[in-house]
Amino acid sequence: MQQPMFILAEGSERTRGQAAQDSNIRAGKAVANAVRTTLGPRGMDKMLVDSSGEVVITNDGATILNEMDIEHPAAQMIVEVSQTQEDEVGDGTTTAAVLTGELLAQAEDLLEADLHPTVIVEGYHEAARLAQEAIDSQVLDIDLEDDILEQVAESSMTGKGTGDVTADVLAKQVVKAVRQVADGDRIDRDDIHVHTRTGASSSATELVEGVVIDKEPVSDNMPRTVEDATAVVLDMKLDVRKAEADTEYNITNVDQLNAAIEAEDTELRGYAKTLADAGVDVVFCTKSIDDRVAGYLADAGILAFKSVKKSDARALARTTGAKRLGSLSDLDESDFGHVDSVRVKKFGDDELTFIEGGEAAKAVTLFLRGGTEHVVDELERAMNDAVDVVIAALNKGGVVPGAGATEVAISDYIRSESAGIEGRKQLAVTAFADAVDSLPRTLAENTGMDSIDALVDLRAAHDRDGRAGIISAGRAGEIGDPVEAGILDPAAVKREAVESATEAATMIVRIDDVIAAE
Fold this sequence. Notes:
Blueprint (H helix, E strand, L loop, with lengths): L12 E4 H20 L9 E4 L5 E4 L2 H7 L5 H17 L3 H20 L4 H22 L7 H12 L9 H15 L10 E7 L7 E3 L1 E4 L11 E10 L19 H24 L4 E4 L5 H9 L3 E3 L4 H11 L3 E2 L11 E11 L2 E7 L7 E7 L2 H23 L3 E3 L3 H14 L6 H23 L3 H15 L3 E5 L2 E5 L7 E3 H19 L3 E4 L2
Parallel strand pairs: 4-13, 7-8, 7-10, 8-9
Antiparallel strand pairs: 1-18, 2-3, 5-13, 6-12, 7-11, 11-12, 14-17, 15-16
């Protein structure tokens, strides 16, 4: 008899066939169900507590899934779906996760009906292509004026924690921020910063036409406010220069020591004199500033900051129009920037510096306030999502009706086209449409409506009026026109959710062998 051959390491676990498929699908469905109740304006929050006792309260899908300690490899793929959605368009993470889970649930039924995984994958990809066509047909033929963009931003924030300030007020600030940094058709997301600080209500949130840095002046003798100022951004040390090679100086008497000290002091004083003679009022330095240089700068009435972060230095250059300099030699006016004002403000025991460049500023900051860390953290997530969806609407294909209307249109279109698809693949295409229906059904359920009755009414209203969604009204919901209600989503959010959910679901369905090392 032949000796058995061992290929896998001792202790490895292997799950094959239907058992592997069932395990993966159950894991994916469980993750999707974990965030399902957070979907929509009436979605609930989750409290996540890590091993150290730190608490996160949110209804943001990507945050929830990232904070969860998920070990199952198939479930981790759902987390990756939400993260991809967040990275690409900034919103729709819960939608993508729920859709992935529902596609897996539909695939489970098809597998039990002896449909081959390859057929399911082909059908899902065909349905995804049809879904993209349906989304394209739903894009509204309207100009993206400020009022439309405000509706997009407000729709993304509805149901999220914004403290004592309403979403429409924050939406105006978001749109103003995006418009401020727009350079023709180009919008650089990095030019919009979000800075948070507790100690006040959310209604104290403001848009700063410039940058807020967590820095205080290098000397207490420096001014706390500078108006109409010339600014310089330095990527160099304002300190005694050190020789590149190891050197040793032999000082044998007091005169030589005094001469060395005088030479050093002359060099340090020269930094301040060079900047003062050039008419500089404010210095932002990414590296260190010697205490003696700080004193000389203060004597010259120059406000200076040291150890400024590289990201802040970039933003300061965008705000002020200054170049980032690595040397003080051959200074020219074209190297400098201009700021309308620099204000050092005290918040509790800390100081923040506000650098405002006025209408010409190409970097802005949403300065968010909140009574507690939990409030301000959730507000930050909501505002970041709002900024991302406004940019997505402008840069990636316009807007579509929200409130589940686009999903109803997608499922209706897929079903109408599925009749022309031959073979068993048609079953998978129809199942995809059923999975998409789960999104408006979940919206209705979270709003307090009967999910089945709401879906029936939605389809009827869609057939009759061409557009219908679930509008949150008071403590309940109703069927209505989301465009008239001002509920709009970027088309890019829908496209990305369909694409990423389809890729993840089909990848999981194709797995029939799981080998786990010990």
